[in-house]
Automatic annotation (TrEMBL):
The gene is iolB. The keyword Isomerase applies. This is 5-deoxy-glucuronate isomerase. InterPro entries: Deoxy-glucuronate_isom_IolB, KduI/IolB_isomerase, RmlC-like_jellyroll, RmlC_Cupin_sf. PANTHER family: 5-DEOXY-GLUCURONATE ISOMERASE.
Length: 273
């Protein structure tokens, strides 16, 4: 199995199903945890020297930090309702307590931080919704924590891709520090509908020194340390993924793979001759 693929595991005593750290991923910035909590279950998280973005994938919870109480939040009971999530930004050197008031799927995104931002609620009205691509390359995007919103390192976004369509495509990368790219590590937390499905994700570099293609199932995580990273949905199964990105500069600058950049032009979709 590829070392870039983190498989779903049954919840531990704290409800943890995914645990990605800079140490076990072999990189410097991105951390990602996912939880499946039962109604009434409580977890406490310490941010330490990192900032957190808690995303309520589905369900409701009471959330409070040492300085802010957000009460009960959440409205999306199934991720495939495609309505924007409730999220909470937590600064470094803080503590957050989450009490699931319903069955709860929770993502905890993290990255280095030394700023002075306060904890804040990111409600559905704060999330920018857009549609990218055309033809069989269309996707529905919900920007939870884009570079236009305050944070020290984190970039967080949700993407929905319909059955038979591609996403994170044409192939693009963000693995150099240059005028055209920022170095950003990235995780993809995948959900499938119906849940028994799978999608395909490839991670590869121009010289193919990295070239991995993975069958990705519900609740799996793909780690992207460098290279291109397109996703392809199979017939019958819609896809969702939560992207977490972070690097030394909080800016999303990328370059397309030259062979496939034409898909962004008027030449696509092709017309029958």
């Amino acid at each position: 199995m590829s070392q870039l693929l983190s498989k779903y595991h049954a919840p531990n005593g704290e409800g943890l199903i995914q645990h990605i750290t800079p140490e076990n991923a072999g990189w410097k910035y991105v951390g990602f945890d996912a939880y499946q909590l039962t109604q009434g279950q409580i977890i406490t998280l310490e941010s330490g020297d990192r900032e957190l973005c808690l995303v309520l994938i589905s369900g409701k919870a009471k959330v409070h930090t040492t300085k802010a109480n957000f009460g009960e939040i959440g409205q999306r009971m199934d991720v495939f309702e495609k309505i924007p999530a409730y999220s909470v930004y937590v600064p470094h050197n803080d503590k957050v307590i989450v009490e699931a008031t319903t069955k709860l799927e929770l993502a905890v995104c993290s990255a280095p931080s030394n700023g002075k931002l306060p904890a804040r609620l990111i409600g559905p009205d704060d999330v920018g919704v857009e549609y990218r691509g055309k033809g069989r390359n269309q996707r529905h995007v919900q920007n939870i924590l884009p570079e236009t919103e305050p944070a020290d390192s984190l970039l967080v976004v949700e993407v929905y891709t319909a059955e038979g369509a591609t996403s994170s495509y044409p192939s693009h990368k963000h693995d150099t520090g240059s005028d055209t790219e920022t170095y950003l590590e990235e995780t993809y937390y995948h959900r499938l509908n119906p849940s028994q499905g799978f999608c395909l994700q490839r991670v590869y570099t121009d010289d193919l020194s990295l070239d991995e293609t993975m069958a990705v199932y519900d609740h799996d995580v793909v780690k992207v340390p460098r290279g291109y990273h397109p996703v392809a949905m199979l017939a019958g199964y819609d896809g969702y993924y939560l992207n977490v990105m972070a690097g030394p500069i909080r800016q999303w600058k990328f370059t397309w793979e030259k062979d496939h950049a034409w898909i962004n032009t008027d030449a696509y979709p092709k017309k029958d001759s």
